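Appendix B. One record, verbatim.
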Amino acid sequence: MTASVRDSTKDWNALLDEFRSYGGKAKNVIQKEGPLGLGLFPIDPSQPVDLRVPKSLLVPADNVELRNGAAVIKDDGAFPTGYSDWFRRYQASYSWGAEGALSVTRFETGLKNLPNNVSALLIQLNLYQPEHRLSGKTFEDSMLRRFLNSRCLGRKGQLLVMPIVELVNHSPKATNWESKPDGSVGVSGLHDGEVLVKYSNSDPLQRLMGYGFNAQEPFGFSLSLQFRHRGQVIVVKGGGGRHWFRPPVLEQKEKRLVVQQPLLGCADYPRMPLTLFLTACQRTSRTDGRELFERIHQANTMALVELLKRLETVRNETACLLRLGCLNQLTAVSHHIGHRAGALTLTRNS
């Protein structure tokens, strides 16, 4: 073991000792570089990992600000003495200052510098909203907000920073965060390799635009689209994830039919998307549910192909990420085969 590795391990262990002194749990984990970038790994894979942040140490994202480039707690009155100083050092060495600031700035700058025809289509499809992404007082503050949005726990309409636990990377095949009745959050159990959790239910392009990385998500939701079908304007509100197992809401608004976040593909339950859509159509007495479902699919495919065409000659890292995201999205929405006959019965939770 080299001196730098020894020093790094010593600093990490000292940081965790302090974290535990404030009531946190951090057993059998170390931060190191992996296939997904910096992440947490078990020190001994034969032993369980136990990570937990008590409710008292969760930091509201709107209580974090930049001071001289460092992410700090603005008002530390509700936290244990010394915790804000620990939080500042943790962010500087292992989170925001480790690779967070660099990675989020690189991705957002790449989006900002895309050709106008690419940006215009991303905006039209509601994948990119510059005014919301860059809403901070300064560009640096906007980058911190983007970073925190991708690392926080959402609870009762509030975003909460989860020190140490937020270093765990995402996998759509993993289980969710473990939230306990006492308000704590964490992850535990045996892990052969990197410790991973599922951040949320999403699809490839939502994941990429929200978090800055690609993942082969099992769900495919519609993009935001508008087209004519049988003489009527169809407005599809894109996105989704939280309530993927429920039929989409269809609303007739004057001469427009508004379809809210339809699920178009599901790798684990390929009969689910059409079943949910047909159920929604039955509730609104629409007889062309299957045809409309296929029309929405067609519109999504055409939009993704057009985006790929516009990206074809763009040569930068963000364009490469977007190209892969489009291909992953096409794969995700392709997972639909037939439907379930009879009444819809669902017992599985999201």
